[in-house]
TrEMBL record:
Keyword Hydrolase: yes
Domain AB hydrolase-1: 80-254
Protein name: Alpha/beta hydrolase family protein
PANTHER family: SLL1969 PROTEIN
Organism: Desulfomicrobium apsheronum
Amino acid sequence: MITFLLTVFLATTLLLALLTYTLYCYEESNQAGKPLGPFLALAGKTALRSIASEMAILLLHPLGLWPRLWKEPTGGRDLVVLVHGLFHNQSAWILFRRWMQAQGFATVCFSYASWNSGWDETVAGLRKDLESLLAAHPDREVHLVGHSMGGLLLWSALAGLHDSSRIKSLVTMGTPFAGSKLSPFALSSLGRYLGYQGETVRAVTRLPLPSHVRRLALHSPADNMVLPNAALRCKAPGWEEMTTRPVSHVAMLHSREVFREVRRWISTENASEGSRTAAQDLA
């Protein structure tokens, strides 16, 4: 029985990688009007790490079923709020949380149900969690980090927040700002709202965000879940973008390189705040 389950588990992750990378190569080759060769090379370079990350996500998923392990901030001064993507839970952040805490940040991981939920109710729940967190920690500044759909949910929640003065930055990782052509495969999950150039993503990316919140969109040239990869580009004003080293959509969660860019963005905000405070003290 154990051998059978392991075989099914491995076969599922391999099949997912094969299907998504096949579609990635086909879509990107057509979008760019270039031969398949360069995209096959990127797929080959990132596929094994993608499979390992998918396996880790599935194996660790049960840990995310205990909210107390993730929602209580531990250590640090500033708070980093982490919001996962579709079909994941808090356990997706297991490495990011550890790395953030090692850098002196306190982390909080918020979750939501991927199935049988509406967009508006999910955003409202996330906004309520943010408001409760801000009220419980009135002396802390907050940074927001969202992976994939989590980035869009954070954008929506932040846009309607009553008081966002202590939220300093928003970083997204592999967020489908223009949706994804893989959305039809999401069936009745929240993924149905991520239709390529669909109504929901267009509405979210028109929402105004507080001008003081610094925004960074990170995206990979080998993202195998957001198709076409051009949908990863954020065209809204006030955003900065950065292309990471080639890494799959899910493997962004386990990439030290991606983490360093997130940390750099947050740390730059802290440094800027410190400089302004010092200047004010001298004045």
